Amino acid sequence: LPSSRSNMARHAGPRLPLIVKSLLPTLGSALDSQRVTATAFLAELLNSNVVNDLVLLEPVMDAMAGRQRDPCLLVRVLALRGLGNISSGSPEKVRKHGAKLLASMVNGMDDRDDPNNLVALEAMSSLSKLLDHLEERDVQAMLLHIAIRIRPFFDSEQPDLRRSSIVLFGHLTKFSAGDGEAFFEQILNALVTLLLHLQDPRPEVVRACKFALRMCGPSMGCEGLCEMFRNHLREERGLHFGEFINDVCKHLMQSYPEMLNRLVLTNLFYFKSNWVDIRAAAPMFIGFLVLHVDEDHCHQVDLDQLISGERWDRGSP
Fold this sequence. Notes:
By secondary structure, the protein is an all-alpha fold.
């Protein structure tokens, strides 16, 4: 289909409006196969600026948005992919239609008839592509909802969901200035998870964490931590996790000693992680936190529970 789309864009030219006009009614077909085929073709067509040149962008975009409630999961996935393709086919038009595109992506993340989260995955990937072209005010209106919605995917068993959600979180930090305090809270909620997943078994997830942490650095209010993320988490650079997390904990306890209990609680959640390297990293993380915290703040931690290694719920006092 991608090659069909590019061939159509190159050779069909003025015939495309008639082809699109013929395909649009097929989106309402009773047959899943016909809706899938038509949606896939139109979604790929949005990758080309030809839809803009031929004044087809709006009708095709509206058709894709209208497929979000399609009973066929694949149609919903392809429709979101098409809307995301506007970022490459007609990037100059994304700003104009930003609110509608953003609403479609958020609806995709909230899809309740998606047991394997394929629609959510496509929504996160497409939104990451669109963000650079959206109005800041449109994104800020949905910023916290998106950040909270994608957070559970950071620990998904599916590596694509881990990677896409973490990359999207990194991109979202660019829009945090207008709601800095509230989004800073989301960064704090995600910090331990992003640091531990630097030990993720999948390299693409590790790269995503490096990117997200580099993006979070400037919002952390700690120049030393920001510089560490910028210098040590470059994509091509290897990382000695033990040395790195030791220095991170030193900066955290110097800048945010009141966060000790919160950081410990989150790490304890990962004592039963399915990934052995993350399971091993969590107690190391706690050890360095306790090592670097001032004596005045040690009372935050219940040492009996810590030594026993029992799992604490995140919401425990």
